[in-house]
Amino acid sequence: MRDYFLLFMAAVVVNNFVLTRFLGLCVFFGVSKNLNASIGMGMAVTSVMTFSSVLAWTIYTFVLEPLNLPFLTTIVFVLLTASFVQLLEMVIKKYAPALYKLWGIYLVLIATNCIVLAVPLLNVQNQYSFFMSLVNAIGSGVGFALAIILLASLREKLRLAEVPKPLEGLGIAFILTGMLALSFFGFSGMIVL
Amino acid sequence: MSTIIAIIVLMTAIGLFFGLILAFANKKFAVEINPLIHMVEDILPKGQCGACGYAGCQAYAEAVVLDNKVSPNLCIPGKAEVAKKVAELTGKAVADVESKIASVRCANPISIAIKKYKYSGIKDCLAASIMHMGPKDCTYGCIGFGTCTKQCHFGAIKLNQNSLPVVDARKCTGCGKCASVCPKKIIQMIPAKSHVEVKCSSKDKGAIARKHCSVACIGCGICKKLCPYDAIRIENNLAIVDSSICIEKCEKSICLEKCPTGAIKNN
Which residues contact B72 (CB under 8 A, 6 or more apart)? Predict the structure, then answer.
């Protein structure tokens, strides 16, 4: 139990994908203009990542490893996450139109988000068990949600500030992210896995 | 060799597997979308201003196609042209769109006006208006930080060199976004054809209004008396022009000439 908790916390803060590994930045900047959209995006990424990691773990353990083809992992996972996101989009559109209205536009963005690919790859690299992969995926998703919600809240406040002309928009967002990343570096080394 | 074959077989199998699943899902989970919605959306101006009362152009397109009660003339920026096309597509009766324009009802810019205090906070009208109703002596007047200009999707309202918002009649689509954010409610939507408007929102008594501002409406009622068509009335010490009467009947605009403070202006 303790191991799972540590793994979860490590994924959320210590090894935060956005702020310490700098992955998934295009979505991170694209959807962090307002708070509501960023919450939707955070939830969508978390759920997609959880499902696709489970799927990826299954395929790796039952197909790639027995066939002795682990070098195909990356390409198979790309295929897998992209198709899975497409499938999920269709299912949600059909059975939960309200949810689709909230998440729909983000789901397409997630298909090309590198975090969704990175998490299953790292799970395999670190040889996590099924439950460890699951916990790692959820933790990474929560970490992404935390980072994007933090940035979105900051950017909403920024609207009232006087930002120097050349830095308006993305420029100041990059600086803010740098500061957030610096503060998250304070967590580094806290949990060694 | 055997590895290569294994790779080819595996990748083909996985590709086929996901391809088939997606193809199957595409049929099975297909959601029918009325193609009319896309056609209507293409016609709309895509300013996403929300003047129609829906959360953007797509939402309005959906509503106007699916709901019989939604009228095709709600898009104000699109004016009559868009309303006609939408009505044609949806098979609804066309009603006229009254094209409107934003009118700034204050003529005393903050840079010149008498002030109560020097404001040096956030440059935003809403923030400034919280502090003792704004820095201006006249509590009804324009604060001049241009919160309205930031809202305009069409670039039609700009601050002039004196920090007074000016509406560009050619660009203004009449969506009313600027009017909705003005904390002093000095921007009002008036019919685009109006030729006379009162450039003041002060509800102060004449003497006080005059003390605050040299171009204020003091509610003297001269315009009301002179107007041959009774298009002007005085409410709360402020002259109000009934544009429905004014546009149709009057060409002379006698009120303009006789206003003692010059608060009534040509639009």
Answer: B64, B83, B86, B87, B90, B92, B94, B95
Domain B35-90: CATH class, spelled out: mainly alpha
State the pLDDT at residue B97.
64
Q: CATH assignment of B100-192, given 3.30.70.20, 3.40.50.2300, 1.10.10.10, 2.170.120.20?
A: 3.30.70.20
Q: Which residues of A touch B122 (CB under 8 A)?
A: 160-161
Reported pTM: 0.62
Q: Is A90 close to B29, i.e. CB distance below 8 A? A: yes
Q: How far is CA A128 from CA A50, A117, A125, A131, B255, in A?
A: 14, 16, 8, 8, 84
Higher pLDDT, A136 or A106: A136
- Tell me if A93 and B25 make a contact (CB, 8 A cut-off): no
The domain ranges of chain A are 2-187
- State pLDDT tens for residues B66-125: 887 788 888 888 877 888 888 888 877 766 666 788 899 998 888 888 888 888 888 889
- Among chain B residues, the shortest Cα distance to A70 is held by B7
CA closest to A94 among chain B residues: B29
For chain B, the domains span: 35-90, 100-192, 194-267
The neighbour count for residue B17, using CB atoms within 10 Å, is 12
User: What stretch of H or E contains B150?
Assistant: helix B147-151
Q: What is the DSSP letter of B135?
A: S
Residue of A nearest to B145 (CA): A160
- A160–B3 CB contact, under 8 Å: no
Task: Note the CATH number of domain B194-267.
Answer: 3.30.70.20
**Residues of chain B with a CB closer than 8 angstroms to some CB in chain A:** 3, 6-7, 10-11, 14-15, 18-19, 21-22, 25-26, 29-31, 122-124, 127
